[in-house]
Amino acid sequence: MSELAITLLRLGFLVLLWIGVFYTLGVLRRDLRAPREARPSIVATPSSVPPAPKRSRSNGKGSRLVVTEGPLSGTVVPMGSGSISIGRAPDSTLVVDDDYASGNHARIYPVDDQWIVEDLNSTNGTWLESTRISRPTVLPTGVPLRIGRTVMQVRK
Amino acid sequence: MSAPTASPSTTQAVQPTRRNQELGLLIFAWFVGSAALAIVGIGTGDGLPDRFWLTLGVTAGAGLVAHAVVRSLAPYAEPIMLPTAFLLNLLGLAMIYRLDIAASQRAIENGSPEPTPESLGQLTWTILGIGLLCVILLIVRDHRKLQRYTYISLLLGALLLLMPLFPVIGHTVNGATLWIKIGPFTYQPGELAKIVLTIFMAGYLVTHRDSLANVRRKVLGVSLPRLRDTGPLLAAWVLSLAIMTFEKDLGTSVIFFGLFIAMVYVATQRFGWVVLGAGMFLVGATLLYLVVDHVRVRVEIWLDPFQYANDAGFQIVQSLYGLANGGMFGTGLGQGYPQLVPFASSDFILAAFGEELGLTGIMALLLLYGILVQRGLRTAISCRDVFGRLLASGLAVVFALQVFVVAGGVTKLIPMTGLTTPFLSAGGSALVANWIMIGLLLRISDITRKPSPEGAAEPSASPQRVTPS
Questions:
Q1: Domain parsing of chain B, residue ranges
Q2: How many CA atoms does the CB half-sphere of B183 hold within 13 Å?
Q3: CA nearest to A14 within chain B
């Protein structure tokens, strides 16, 4: 076989091998971006209808933390006078089952008449609208707060 | 990993199974492997190698069967591990064919009888390995059930590790007592021990990780874990030293100890264990260097291989020459002299690839291993039960460590230890064990990604204090 053909085969095979690598990476990337809505969530009762009115008044404040996006979408956490912890740790108030959330990701606590959200040094951050918060920040009503794939907001 | 920027789609999409993408990747992998085999034949000047069509047919069949089994038994498993492993296996097969051709050419030149081709055995082991992958998917329907066998795994693992030392069945090759021999069959039980000991470690750490992570005692102002909690680490250390001393197998002992440290780290998320483990490793390595002869020889070869270029360092020196000969783009499959490195088909197959495919090809191979390990660790991260998480990360770490130790040894980054390269190297024991590991990872990822309600029955995954609307 001619020298040229051998060289072409030699380089052609390397190209083929790398096409294979990039093909694999392409599938990998698509897989990473896949929606995870269908992840198991018997605990969350996903519903697109707005949450039903609260049955009872909880300690004074009467606000609720409503999850609007993510696997727990539709979940409502009543906000009393205590703080709410969010994270993957099983003892969190809101346990998010999310690869992008840390064990103890964030907490929300009341100061005077406001809710304050504080990031507990999480890996991927806590995002208020599109800003990553770096210090305890006021969490106004109706503003989306994102932790991993979970988006939630305070509602009156 | 960065924060997700795209907001998740709000539709309740059905979880894609991604089996078709897997099939696409498998077909492509088979095509690349077949091309490698054909080029080997053309490059060595013999035309298509012996059993070319047989190999093509058999590997295509094996790939399709594996795909069909995954499709029916683990439909939600992630789609990349199987094709990646398949591709590596086929490339290894092509390189072993290539070395067979060189061996038979040399035999003809010397007038000695034709050697038994290694590739035929490797092909058989490939089929057996893929078959065992299917069997694993069939038997292990839920990886969490494996946790029941925690202590049985420990016993089994210890037994497998000690088997080569038993009289009658124990078998020594080139100074390493790693094999058992029953009739004409030889097997390295240590390869299977890797898997069962990973199962044991995962099961053990599920129950003991809290005390490992949290109980500590202050000694001279430094907080250290209690001696009682370091027990398993000490046991792993002693076990590694024992393997190194009695079976003369550096590689396996490095893998075991590294695996144990990595799993304790994953379980406790405390870096202190890694520091402690690295310290113990250094102490152990120094001890062995001073006491055990063959360890000292390995280290001295590593420090200055060219001084021993004609005896003990011959292998590593030839490997370095081979890599240099390959350069950036390699000599082309079938065009180099990889057969000059002793054990080119097993321990030094990466050097053979480095010579014939060059740095470009080696990079692709390492990237494929990186993808494999990433998929394993990814499976571990998304797994909801602690046992599965530990098992998956342990299996991924075994692949990663093995590649590191082999690639490091071949390129003289670290002392040569003599391990097989996962999926590439000739050697049935390792190949079969690697396919079993892929089977377990596929099972864990299937359970993790399956959108079934009972999958979430883990207490840790349920927000107990949440009031659903």
A1: 143-449
A2: 1
A3: B361
Q: A11–B12: do the CB atoms touch at under 8 Å?
A: no
Q: Which of B335, B460, B466 sits opposite A90 (nearest CB)?
A: B460
pTM (2 decimals)?
0.77
Separate counts of helices (H) and strands (E) for chain A? 1, 11
CA nearest A51 in B: which residue? B469
How is residue B240 written in tokens? 């590694």
8 Å CB contact of B14 and A38: yes
Using the beta-carbon criterion (under 8 Å), do B381 and A99 form an inter-chain contact? yes
Tokens found for residue B19 = 């089996």
Question: Which among A33, A39, A145 is the top mutation candidate for probing chain B, defined by the most B β-carbons within 10 Å of its own β-carbon?
Answer: A39
Residue B284 Rama label (left phi>0; alpha psi -120 to 50; beta) = alpha
The vertex-B371 CA angle with B367 and B373, nearest 5°, equals 115
Q: Phi/psi of residue B43, each to 5°? A: -65, -40
Candidates A28, A38, A97; nearest CB to B15: A38
Residue of A nearest to B377 (CA): A99
The pLDDT tens digits along chain B (469 residues) read: 444 444 444 334 456 788 899 999 999 999 999 999 999 888 887 677 778 899 999 999 999 999 999 999 999 898 999 999 999 999 999 999 999 888 888 888 888 887 888 888 899 999 999 999 999 999 999 988 998 888 898 889 888 888 888 877 777 777 677 788 877 777 888 889 889 989 998 998 888 877 776 666 655 555 566 666 677 667 777 877 777 677 777 778 888 888 888 998 888 887 877 888 888 888 888 888 888 887 888 888 888 888 888 888 888 899 999 999 998 998 988 888 888 888 888 888 999 999 999 999 999 999 999 999 999 999 998 888 889 999 999 999 999 999 999 999 888 898 888 788 999 998 888 999 999 999 999 999 999 888 755 444 444 433 434 434 3
Q: Which of B16, B364, B466 sits opposite A94 (nearest CB)?
A: B466
